[in-house]
Amino acid sequence: MPQEISKQDAIAAVRLLIEYIGDNPDREGLIDTPKRFVDAWEELFAGYKEDPKAILERVFEDTSGYDDVVILRDIGFESMCEHHILPIIGRVHIGYIPSGNVIGISKLARLVDIYAKRLQVQETLTVNIADTLQETLRPLGVGVIVEAEHHCMTTRGVHKKGLTMRTEQFTGLFLENPALRERMSRAVG
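Above: the chain's sequence. Below: its structure in token form.
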């Protein structure tokens, strides 16, 4: 188990980084920056403190026989690339085929937020959302499509703006049936 790091230790580390880049953490504009930075990180990485499976425990069983695809589109998210700790900003589209119960749609958005608020790569985000839905809800199939812009490419390195990366993960009937995958892809645009 890693050693517990205090908030004061984290603030001191940010002060050191400010000095490393050549600025003075004691100048007027930067005096409170280390604390603000640590506070922001607590918010940006709050997903480490939440159990994604726990939010999916409550399901609705009375669906009046509904047995077709449920799709929630355009779930906005902000995450951080684990390689450069720079933003990944995009949208997640989730589809699933119920097997007798459904989940509240706000739970789908919360699931995205929990995983997005962790260091990662987009492929991992996509797989984590799909696998958690499949394992917890046990639908007949899950489809997850993630589209995002990576600031590690737009603000540094190759400096290419306007590029969007798309990742997809399918399980169950979505994986077995190309027409179903195509149907979801058309539905999300």
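The chain is about 40% helix and 25% strand.
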